[in-house]
Amino acid sequence: MTKEFILSEIRRLGSVGGKSIGHQRFSKETGIKRTDWYGKYWVRWSDALKDAGLSANEFNKAYSDDYVIEKLISLIRGLGHYPVIGEIRIKAREDRNFPAHNVFSRVGNKQTLIKKLIAYCADKDEYSDIIQICSVLQTPEKLKKEKGDVLVIGAVYLIKSGKFYKVGRSNSIGRRHYELSIQLPERAEVIHSINTDDPVGIEVYWHNRFRDKRKNGEWFELSQEDIKAFKRRKFM
Questions:
Q1: Residue 191 lies in a domain
Q2: What is this structure's pTM?
Q3: Which one of 38, 163, 204, 210 has the fewest CB atoms closer than 10 angstroms to its CB?
């Protein structure tokens, strides 16, 4: 059992509840016993933590948020869906370079992680698949009726005016179509709408997907393939 291997395991597991992992928890998680390090490399567990770049009383800074998010992206792609805690635990056991589940908890709860993932991927075309997976998992915000707790299903729409297309969101496509019709110099035509319980996230997804076709604001110059791709979705 080498010193560097033990240090790499300490860094991988990071902190628990805002404090660096204790030696008993460390032994339980890794199978590395106290006798593997005590009197051979360190006399005190705090010395091992210090060598690993951690502190017994300070929040773990071993991994940046971006590093954790990149690892989460790789796991999502490998699984094809957002992982549950059990899948994160299994990945950490199989891959020594993958952060332990408690490291992800440090970055935030599930909804916080999803928001950070979407923000991280928003301006990166290569991560459009991650935005699609995560957007549908966001807890709907401000989508309740003023009276009662019934969720309102909104929509992301595609409207054509002249040679350009607008991608927007609304809880009333008819009303939005009318508003645009009286504002635009050319006739506005609703091409398609996608029902969703997360209009904000789905709108971000399509804006990101068409970002190279953007002309101004929410208006895009789209190809027939782009339009077909949008029309294939009935619900997201």
A1: yes
A2: 0.40
A3: 163
Would you state the pLDDT for residue 223?
A: 92
Residue 89 domain boundaries:
65-135
Residue 22 inside a domain? The answer is yes
The answer to whether residue 217 sits within a structural domain is yes
pLDDT in tens, 168-178: 887 666 666 66
Domain count, the chain: 3
The amino acid at residue 203 is: E
User: Would residue 142 count as lying in a domain?
Assistant: no
pLDDT beyond 80 at 94 = yes
